[in-house]
Amino acid sequence: MFAIVKRLWGFSKVRYRGLAKNANRAFAALALANIFLSRSRLMGQVRL
After folding, report:
1. Is the pTM of this model over 0.85?
2. pLDDT digit string (tens) for 24-42?
3. Which branch of life, at top level (predicted)?
4. Residue 6, burial from CB neighbour count under 10 angstroms (0-12, 13-18, 19+)
5. How far apart are CA 27 and CA 42, in angstroms?
6. Are 37 and 4 in contact (CB under 8 A)?
7. Residue 27, exposed/middle/buried by CB under 10 A (0-12, 13-18, 19+)?
């Protein structure tokens, strides 16, 4: 999961924005990475 966030979406360096802003950005990125990793299972349930 962390490799996807760091390499695919360019989160290798984080500039200082404040602890709350960095935490919110990291939580959102990790949530999207979880969805990205489980996309085949999620799309299998949606097929008509």
Report:
1. no
2. 888 888 888 888 888 888 8
3. Bacteria
4. middle
5. 20
6. yes
7. exposed
